[in-house]
Write a structure and sequence with these properties.
Elements (H helix, E strand, L loop, with lengths): L8 H10 L8 H9 L12 H4 L9 H12 L3 H12 L3 H13 L1 E2 L5 E3 L9 H15 L5 H20 L1 H10 L8 H10 L4 E2 L11 E3 L2 E3 L10 H14 L5 H8 L6 H10 L9 H24 L10 H11 L10 H12 L12 H7 L4 H9 L15 E15 L5 E9 L2 E7 L1 H7 L8 E9 L7 E9 L6 E6 L5 H13 L6 E8 L2 E9 L2 H11 L4 E5 L8
Parallel strand pairs: 3-5, 8-10, 11-12
Antiparallel strand pairs: 1-2, 4-5, 6-7, 6-9, 7-8, 9-10, 11-14, 12-13
Length: 557
């Protein structure tokens, strides 16, 4: 598209059709035709009225039908049969149609049914070449109407994503309200686009994802165990009678409108009440008693029951109200517990992913992610760096264990299906007995692990990883080489410079610092192993060379 520089919908439709295995060979020719109008090349001049709109290239299935109609005299119905035969690679049918296309067809009385190319003034060599081009092209061709639909939708959505990115991503997220599997992928895309994702809030969230000043607010309807109808009730009540002042106000206004304990518990876990003063732990410890007291109070009011407090003093009534809404104060849960609840209720880690601080480390220690696996399953065009991933290939994948399913085979051998989530989503890792027994101490829910395994790519099934071993993820410490050059002779410094330059490398990189007195200066990165370390010791002397552990830089928010 960058080379084509499309300026009309027709170009977009052609681009969609050409970007496929068969027609792809025509891309340079099409672009050349677009950039040099009037200089198109045709296998035969008779093709010009049909292919001039696509600069001499066969782009659409309709053009194949037009060619056999115009050049060989086929009927529309017979032309469609040829298109189908070519698309389905029916060699016997195509061999028969080639003869008819070139020489035509007559009945028993020698009446002409189909004239054929030769009768219409097209030489046999050109006719054969045209048929070959059609046969090769038609294996993967689109019909134009199909390509047009794709082009229009792609153009509109690209426009929206470019000029209304927050609204576009919110709408995309809303399309997966009932299926949160792809939500992490789109949340990650929001981060890439610089769009902030806001947590669900009882006074700000709607049922669906919404946009607030260029940011996306999580919808209440996406919270597990809450449901669309209860969220509509909550939002409607808020619109009619104002924002909820606190947790008690929320319960009193909604408890009789179908908002049950399970729903309230899920809302608490999702963090929608975080703007109120109580901790999440306090609300979880208190909500059941509070809702029961409200329900009991409402029932008594409806039946006209009177308690001893109702006829008591003002102080008695205030004490009863205090007991009715007595919060069992608790310190806030740990960050790990809060994130775990958030993941359970929202399907994603919104406040922060447990793996976020290990992002670079994981990238350095692995060679595949859920994003890659998803692209393999979707078989996107073109393939991920063609031939990068193959069935049976050894891979390393890291993530947090979210689910473990154990089972026994017919031979009474244990195996496990382990769901492991990385920053982009989840994948299933199959662990047979030998790998399971070797790794069982590391196979625990919420444990961060690295899987050493092989890819299983099947045409009609999801791509999976078969584990050889699962180990607990360990953060690698980064070492640096310190070389003291204080008062070092110039000749020795020259040798050292030569050595550092020679051993600059791409693998096993390590930073090098030179020390002059008490000051240390970074001077590059080299490839280092034990043998190379010995060489540097010989150059500067053993007492002048050492290692140090680099401190981790604080994470930016």
């Amino acid at each position: 598209m960058k080379e084509l520089k499309p300026d009309c919908l027709e170009d977009l439709i052609a681009g969609v059709s050409l970007y496929r295995p068969g027609p792809m060979d025509q891309i340079p020719r099409y672009i050349k035709g677009k950039q040099n109008p009037g200089h198109n090349e045709y296998t035969h001049i008779s093709l010009e009225p049909i292919l001039n709109v696509t600069y001499g290239c066969m782009v659409y299935q309709e053009q194949v039908m037009q060619i056999v109609q115009e050049l060989a005299g086929y009927s529309l119905g017979r032309a469609d049969l040829v298109r189908r035969a070519m698309g389905k690679k029916k060699l016997d049918v195509m061999a028969k149609e080639r003869e008819i296309f070139i020489h035509g067809q007559t009945d028993e009385q020698e009446n002409i049914i189909i004239p054929g190319c030769i009768r219409n003034g097209i030489d046999e060599k050109s006719s054969n070449k045209i048929f070959d081009e059609m046969a090769e092209f038609a294996k993967y061709a689109f019909n134009k109407s199909h390509a047009a639909c794709y082009a229009v939708v792609a153009y509109r959505t690209a426009y929206l994503k470019r000029y209304y990115p927050a609204e576009f991503m919110a709408a995309t997220l809303n399309s997966y309200l009932g299926n949160l599997d792809k939500i992490p992928q789109y949340i990650d895309e929001c981060k890439r686009l610089g769009i902030e994702n806001l947590k669900p809030d009882i006074n700000k969230s709607e049922t669906k994802f919404t946009v607030e000043q260029g940011k996306i607010r999580f919808g209440l309807g996406s919270i597990k165990n809450v449901g669309i109808q209860p969220t509509k009730t909550i939002v409607e009540e808020r619109k009619q009678n104002g924002e909820y002042k606190d947790f008690i106000d929320f319960c009193e206004r909604t408890i009789e409108k179908g908002i049950n304990k399970k729903c309230i518990e899920s809302l608490i876990k999702a963090g929608v009440f975080s703007e109120f003063k109580q901790t999440k732990a306090t609300l979880l410890a208190s909500y059941e008693q509070i809702t029961e007291n409200i329900q009991n109070s409402n029932k008594k009011g409806m039946t006209g029951q009177v308690t001893m407090f109702d006829i008591g003093t003002t102080e008695d009534k205030e004490e009863m109200q205090k007991q009715k809404y007595n919060f069992q104060e608790r310190e806030e849960l740990s960050n790990k517990e809060l994130l775990s609840m958030e993941k359970e209720m929202l399907g994603i880690y919104l406040s922060g992913h447990p793996l976020q601080k290990y992002r670079e480390q994981i990238k350095n220690q692995t060679n595949i992610s859920t994003l890659d696996l998803r692209e393999l399953d979707e078989k996107t065009e073109p393939q991920i760096e063609k031939n990068k991933y193959k069935d049976g290939q050894n891979v390393k994948y890291a993530g947090i264990i979210t689910q473990i399913k154990k089972k026994y085979t017919k031979q009474n051998r244990i195996m496990a299906f382990i769901t492991i989530e990385d920053l982009y989503g989840s994948t299933e890792v199959i662990t047979f007995e030998s790998a399971y027994l070797k790794s069982k101490d590391n196979i625990m829910e919420e444990n961060i692990v690295i899987v050493d395994g092989r890819l299983s790519i099947k045409e009609d099934d999801s791509t999976t990883i078969i584990a050889n071993e699962i180990t607990t993820f360990k953060e690698q410490t980064q070492k640096a080489l310190i070389i003291d050059i204080t008062d070092l002779e110039e000749e020795t410094k020259a040798k050292l410079r030569g050595g550092l330059k020679y051993f600059t490398g791409d693998k096993n990189n390590i930073k090098v610092y030179v020390k002059i007195g008490e000051e240390e200066k970074e001077c590059g990165v080299i490839y280092l192993n034990d043998d190379i370390y010995e060489i540097f010791k010989q150059i500067v002397g053993e007492e002048r060379i050492s290692y140090k552990i680099l401190e981790k830089k604080p994470e930016t928010v």
